[in-house]
Structure to design on (633 residues):
C-alpha cells in the first residue's frame, strides 16, 4: 500500500521521501529548504521542533498567528503542512483547514512540503470517504495529488499554474 | 441561455458552421491535440469496469427524488451557515449574484471554470453591472481575452494553437512573449495572482454537493478553484440542481470516475471539499458562503424520457469520442454545451428554442453512449429529439417522408417498380424537392440496361 502510494505520487511528478523517523524527517526538511528566506509552517506538521530547527538556520518562519500572515505568505518560498490522511488509490493526501493550519500554506508558495504519517495511509479513496463522511468535517478538506498543472496549452502538461510547482511528500513512521 | 459572446465559427445553421470548421486549417491542427486526451482517458477509465454501474445507480437514485435531496441539501447547508438561493431561470440566478456583489461593494470578481456560469452568462452580467469579472482557469482566461466562449467543457481553449495563445496573451501583457509553454504560464500566473489578491468575491461551480453533510466538492488541476475559495471574503457557488448526490461517501466512486473520463487522471490534482464558511480562528477562507441552486427547466425533464440527461457529470468524454465534435470543435454548435451532450441538453434547456438542428448533426454511431461514465443513452436521445423538437427543416423532412411512403408503395408492385426505375434512369438519381437531402448522398447509378430486360433478352 505504501509502495503504491509512493510510486503513484512519483508518477504524478511529486517528490517522495521516507518512510523515515521524525528526527530523520526534520533533518531532511531542513536540508531541503536551505537557502530559502521565508517558510510558512502549519501547526499540524507532526514533527516537534521543526520550526525551531528551521529558525536556527537563519530562515524566517511564518507563523499562522502572524497578523501579517496573508500578505507575508505571498513572499514565502515554501509552505510546510501536515496531512489528516493519505490514500494509496488513487494517490492523494488530504489536508484539513483549522486555526493554525490555514488553506493558503499549501497553495500560495511555489513549493509545498507535506509530512504524512505512515499510520494515516488508507488503501482507497472510497474507504477514506466512508470514514471522513462519518466524522466531523472541516470547513475545507483539500485533496492534493500533485503539483498545480494545466493541459490547456495544446493538451501538453505544464506545471505550476496557480499553485505550487513542486510538491514533496515526506513519509514519517 | 442568452449570451453575448462572439462566435468564432460563422454560419447560419449547424450544417453551415460545420462546413466552415472543417475548412479551417488552424482549427483542424488544434483539434489533433484531442488525440492525446483520448488515449489517456480510455486506459485509465478501463481500470474499474464496475464503477460505471455503481455511478449510474447513484445518479439515478438521486433523480428518483431530486426535490427531496435538494431539500435535504439545503437543510444541511443552512445548518453549516451557508446561505442558499433558489433560481428558476438564468435571469433569476444573475440577479441574485449581481445583487449580492453590489450589496458588498464588490469591484473585482474572480471565477473558476464553471459551465453553469457560462449557461447563465454571468461574466457579462457582472461586467454590465460595472464589475470586473476575471476567468482564472488558464484556458478560460485565454478564451475570455479572445472574446470567445469555451469550445470544450474541460479544455476550453482546445481550438487554439500555441502561437495563437501567445498572440492573445502578449496583446494583454503589452510586451512580447515567446511561443513557450513555461513562459506563457509564468506570465499568466503572475497576472492572475494579482487578480486573486484583489478580488472581493470568488465564484465557482460545483462538481458534486452531498445532501447528507452539506459539502460542496470542487475539482481542479490548476488550483484556481482553491484560490477562489481561499482568498476572497465571499464565495458564491452556482449549482445546477442535478449536482446533488445523496451521500458524501458516494464521491469515493464518483470522483475517480469523473476525473478519469475528463482528463485521464486517476484523480485530479486538487479536490476541495467545502463544508461551510471559514470558522472561528481560521485565518483564510471566505466569511460568507452562498450557493445558488439553478433550475433552468431541468426539473421539467423529470419523469420524461430525457430525465437521465440529468445524470450527466460534465466530464466531456462524449465530446472526445464524437466523430462530429472531433472534426468541428465546440463553436460550430453555437451553444454553451457542445458535443453529444450539448446536442441533447441545448434543445431541452431552451424548450426547443435553441439548437433544434443539433440532433441532426450526428452519425448515430453511439460512441457517446458507450463513453458515458454514467450510462446515459445519448445516441437514443439524439435520435428521439429529432422527432420531438421541430427545427427549420421539419417541412423538408415531411416531404422526405412522403417520398419514402410513395416509394415503398411503388416498389410493392412489378409495374410500379418498372415505372420508377425507368424514371430514375432519366433523372440520374435526383429527386425533385429533396435536393438538400440527395446532394450530400451518393445514390447508386442505375444500370444502362435493367437486369430484367437483359434476362428477358437472353432467356426469354
Amino acid at each position: 500500500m505504501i509502495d503504491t502510494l509512493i510510486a503513484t505520487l512519483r508518477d504524478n511528478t511529486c517528490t517522495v521521501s521516507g518512510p523515515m523517523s521524525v528526527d530523520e524527517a526534520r533533518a531532511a526538511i531542513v536540508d531541503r529548504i536551505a537557502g530559502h528566506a521565508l517558510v510558512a509552517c502549519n501547526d499540524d506538521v507532526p514533527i516537534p521542533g521543526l520550526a525551531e530547527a528551521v529558525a536556527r538556520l537563519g530562515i524566517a518562519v511564518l507563523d499562522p498567528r502572524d497578523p501579517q500572515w496573508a500578505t507575508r505568505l505571498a513572499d514565502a518560498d515554501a509552505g510546510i503542512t501536515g496531512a489528516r490522511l493519505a490514500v494509496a488509490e488513487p494517490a492523494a493526501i488530504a489536508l484539513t483547514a483549522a486555526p493554525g493550519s490555514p488553506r493558503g500554506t499549501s497553495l500560495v508558495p511555489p513549493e509545498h512540503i507535506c509530512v504524512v504519517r505512515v499510520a494515516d495511509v488508507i488503501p482507497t479513496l472510497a474507504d477514506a470517504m466512508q470514514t471522513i463522511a462519518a466524522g466531523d468535517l472541516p470547513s475545507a478538506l483539500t485533496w492534493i495529488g500533485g503539483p498545480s498543472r494545466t493541459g490547456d496549452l495544446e493538451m501538453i502538461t505544464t506545471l505550476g499554474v496557480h499553485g505550487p510547482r513542486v510538491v514533496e511528500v515526506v513519509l514519517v513512521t | 441561455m442568452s449570451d453575448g459572446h462572439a462566435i468564432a465559427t460563422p454560419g447560419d445553421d449547424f450544417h453551415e458552421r460545420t462546413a466552415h470548421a472543417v475548412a479551417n486549417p488552424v482549427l483542424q491542427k488544434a483539434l489533433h491535440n484531442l488525440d492525446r486526451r483520448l488515449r489517456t482517458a480510455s486506459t485509465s477509465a478501463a481500470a474499474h469496469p464496475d464503477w460505471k454501474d455503481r455511478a449510474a445507480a447513484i445518479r439515478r437514485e438521486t433523480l428518483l427524488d431530486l426535490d427531496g435531496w435538494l431539500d435535504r441539501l439545503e437543510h444541511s447547508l443552512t445548518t453549516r451557515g451557508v446561505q442558499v438561493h433558489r433560481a428558476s431561470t438564468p435571469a433569476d440566478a444573475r440577479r441574485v449574484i449581481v445583487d449580492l456583489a453590489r450589496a458588498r461593494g464588490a469591484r473585482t470578481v474572480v471565477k473558476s471554470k464553471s459551465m453553469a456560469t457560462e449557461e447563465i452568462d454571468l461574466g457579462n452580467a457582472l461586467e454590465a453591472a460595472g464589475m470586473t469579472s476575471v476567468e482564472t482557469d488558464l484556458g478560460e482566461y485565454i478564451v475570455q481575452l479572445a472574446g470567445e466562449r469555451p469550445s470544450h467543457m474541460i479544455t476550453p481553449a482546445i481550438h487554439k494553437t500555441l502561437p495563437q495563445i501567445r498572440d492573445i496573451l502578449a496583446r494583454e501583457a503589452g510586451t512580447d512573449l515567446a511561443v513557450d509553454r513555461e513562459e506563457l504560464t509564468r506570465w499568466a500566473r503572475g497576472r492572475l495572482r494579482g487578480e486573486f489578491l484583489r478580488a472581493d468575491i470568488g465564484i465557482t461551480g460545483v462538481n458534486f454537493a452531498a445532501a447528507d453533510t452539506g459539502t460542496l466538492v470542487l475539482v481542479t488541476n490548476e488550483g484556481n478553484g482553491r484560490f477562489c475559495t481561499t482568498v476572497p471574503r465571499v464565495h458564491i457557488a452556482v449549482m445546477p440542481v442535478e449536482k446533488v448526490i445523496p451521500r458524501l461517501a458516494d464521491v469515493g466512486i464518483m470522483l475517480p470516475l469523473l476525473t478519469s473520463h475528463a482528463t485521464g487522471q486517476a484523480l485530479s490534482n486538487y479536490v476541495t471539499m467545502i463544508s461551510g464558511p471559514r470558522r472561528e480562528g481560521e485565518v483564510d477562507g471566505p466569511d460568507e458562503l452562498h450557493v445558488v441552486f439553478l433550475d433552468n427547466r431541468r426539473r421539467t425533464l423529470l419523469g420524461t424520457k430525457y430525465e437521465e440527461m440529468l445524470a450527466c457529470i460534465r466530464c466531456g468524454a462524449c465530446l472526445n469520442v464524437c466523430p462530429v465534435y472531433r472534426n468541428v470543435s465546440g463553436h460550430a454548435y453555437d451553444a454553451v454545451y457542445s458535443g453529444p451532450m450539448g446536442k441533447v441538453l441545448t434543445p431541452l434547456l431552451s424548450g426547443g428554442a435553441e439548437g433544434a438542428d443539433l440532433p441532426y448533426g450526428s452519425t448515430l454511431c453511439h460512441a457517446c453512449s458507450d463513453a458515458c461514465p454514467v450510462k446515459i443513452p445519448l445516441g437514443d436521445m439524439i435520435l428521439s429529439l429529432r422527432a420531438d423538437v421541430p427545427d427549420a427543416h421539419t417541412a423538408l423532412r415531411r416531404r422526405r417522408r412522403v417520398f419514402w411512403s410513395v416509394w415503398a408503395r411503388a416498389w410493392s408492385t412489378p409495374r410500379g417498380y418498372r415505372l420508377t426505375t425507368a424514371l430514375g434512369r432519366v433523372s440520374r438519381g435526383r429527386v425533385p424537392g429533396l435536393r438538400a437531402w440527395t446532394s450530400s448522398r451518393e445514390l447508386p447509378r442505375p444500370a444502362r440496361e435493367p437486369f430484367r430486360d437483359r434476362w428477358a433478352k437472353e432467356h426469354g
